[in-house]
Each structure stands twice: as structure tokens, then as C-alpha cells.
Amino acid sequence: MSDFDPRPSGTGTIAPPKAVIDTVNLTKNYVMGEMVVRALREVSVTIHRGEFVAIMGPSGSGKSTFMNMIGCLDRPTSGQYFLDGTEVGRLGDNDLAAIRNKTIGFVFQTFNLLPRTTALKNVELPLLYGGVKNRGKLAAEALSRVGLGQRMDHKPNELSGGQQQRVAIARAIVTDPVMILGDEPTGNLDTRTSYEIMALFQELNRAGKTVILVTHEEDIARHANRIIRFRDGRVERDEIVEHPTDASEMLLNLPNPDAPPTVEA
Predict the structure, then answer these.
(1) Best exposed site among 55, 108, 119, 260 by fewest CB in 10 Å?
(2) For 216-229, what is each residue's pLDDT tens digit?
(3) Are 201 and 224 in contact (CB under 8 A)?
(4) 185 has which bridge partners?
(5) Degrees (nearest 5) of the Cα angle 50, 107, 210?
(6) CB of 50 within 8 A of CB of 17?
(7) What is this structure's pTM?
(8) Tell me: the pLDDT tens digits for 162-220?
């Protein structure tokens, strides 16, 4: 498991880390005509607050279905899902929408930014849906946190792919969610930009955020402290990454295209 900061209880013993995600025999079946596709088969997984977890598996393994379940984008056929102590399966659509808005920060491969809207206004969106009043201030703080304090008034077509993903991450963290859920967040990015985004995720995780990434790239998964591998709708392996890749260190060894050319004497 990843390193935690256990909190002492009133009796002087060490309190266990709180589970953010706890699934019990989670099952999802899709009916396609006369055929039943068993996408998830009695999956029981616990992810604690402060972990950095990568979800992996080949196409059809169930990893995307699992992501939809923990992101409250779909409901299980059977089994239970507890998100930060709340059993999600008992909630109605409005409550699920509120959870998606406040409890989970989503980051997608395709950024999903409004093209004619500034970075600041894009980051304000979850706050607008939540009825928050000081939206501009909070959105500006989130953009500054991801290194885009000078780009707030730029529209997506005025930003690089990496900068657009940073806007998406700022939008994901602006509500101070319990967890950040990334779906192939580096899939459309080059090598250097991918490391920059992974360095940002690692920084957020070190600051206490629970980060869960769905990826098919082994080198991206090795940035996490834990990898859960799916196959045929089941957890095939749940492993600890003893020495996660440090994205900031990797960046030091990559050429910087923005650096001035070296002139030999």
C-alpha cells in the first residue's frame, strides 16, 4: 500500500486509513439481445484516502466498466459500492449528480473543455452547477495551482494540449473533491507533456488527494503506488509499486524544446 499519515484515535491507538472506495461483490451485466455480457464479476476492492492507484487491463477486461461504477456514471447489477462511507446504490439520480459534481473530480483523455469559453470560465463550471458564489476566486486559485495563473483568459484553441489538460485538472480540483478520477489522461499527449501531467498528479497526491487513473500504458501506471489489474471482469492482480516513477525526475532527463539553443565557443 502507499504511505499514509495515520491519525491517532482518542485511545492512543493508530486509526486505520479511511476507505474512499469500498466495493463488495460488485457485478455489472449488460443484456445485448439474447446474450448477457458479464462486464464485472463480483469485484471487491478497497482504496484508502491518500492512495495513488492505477487501473489497468486489456480491452474487455472490465476496467472501463469499473471506472464508470466508481465514478457514479453507471449503476451495478448487484453488489455494493461505498463512496467515502456512503452506499451509492441507494441514492437517486439527483444525489448521484451532486456526488459527481462535488465528491469526484473527473479528468478525461479528450479534455472536454468548452471551446469558446476561457480557461477561467471552464474551471468555474462545477462551481456554477453547485451554486457557489465566489466562483471566480476559487477558479483562479485552481488555475494558479496547476501553473496556469497567466493563462486564465485564454480559450482552449489558444492553449497547447498539455495546458488544456491542466485546465481540465484545475476544473477537477476546484470543488476540493474526495478523489480525482482520470480516464487515460495522457492518451493524447506527447512524452514530455505526459510526464508534466503525471508530475502534477503526483504533486496533488502528495498534498493528500486520492488519485485513481485508468490507463493502458504500463509506464504511466508505474507512477502510481498501486496497480490493480483487471481481466475478464475480475481483479487479476493487485500489486504495490515499490519504487514509483518520479515524473519530476524524469523531466530533468528529457530535452526541453523551449530551452534556448546551446552556442559553442
Answers:
(1) 260
(2) 999 999 999 999 99
(3) no
(4) none
(5) 5
(6) yes
(7) 0.87
(8) 999 999 999 999 999 999 999 999 998 999 999 999 999 999 999 999 999 999 999 99
